[in-house]
Design a protein that fits this description.
The chain is mainly α. The protein is built from 3 helices and 2 strands. The chain is elongated and about 90 Å long.
């Protein structure tokens, strides 16, 4: 083990030497292949978008029924309006959750690729 030495640049800064670490050698072609594979990661099928579409469709059907239907009692009309509101809320929530899920999946792959490029930058000539 080499002895550790530190260097003082100013009274409040002290440079600490880097510790030795283990590393795996990797061929440039293998490294590029990994980068390509990470770059081509596709998002999983987003179930929340499908669920959101179904709820929005149910709300649209309820609206059509509300304006074209003949409701014999006020209770049926209120139930129809309540189902439209609930369907719109659930559809909007499902779309929102689906969008957030897509963003998280995309960020993960991009983060790994950016980190790989950062490492790669250390070795560029």
């Amino acid at each position: 083990m080499p002895t550790e030495t530190t260097y003082r640049i100013a009274s409040e800064l002290e440079i600490i030497p880097q510790q030795t670490k283990r590393a795996y050698p990797i061929l440039v072609t293998e490294w590029n292949h990994i980068k390509e594979r990470i770059g081509s990661i596709k998002e999983n099928i987003n179930v929340f978008s499908s669920i959101g579409s179904a709820f929005i469709g149910a709300a649209a059907a309820g609206l059509i029924s509300l304006f074209s239907g003949d409701y014999s009692s006020e209770t049926k009309r209120i139930i129809c309006i309540a189902s439209i509101i609930v369907s719109l809320f659930l559809g909007t929530a499902a779309f929102f959750i689906g969008k957030k899920q897509q963003e998280l999946q995309k960020e993960r792959a991009q983060d790994v690729k950016m980190y790989m490029e950062q490492i790669e930058g250390r070795y560029k000539e």
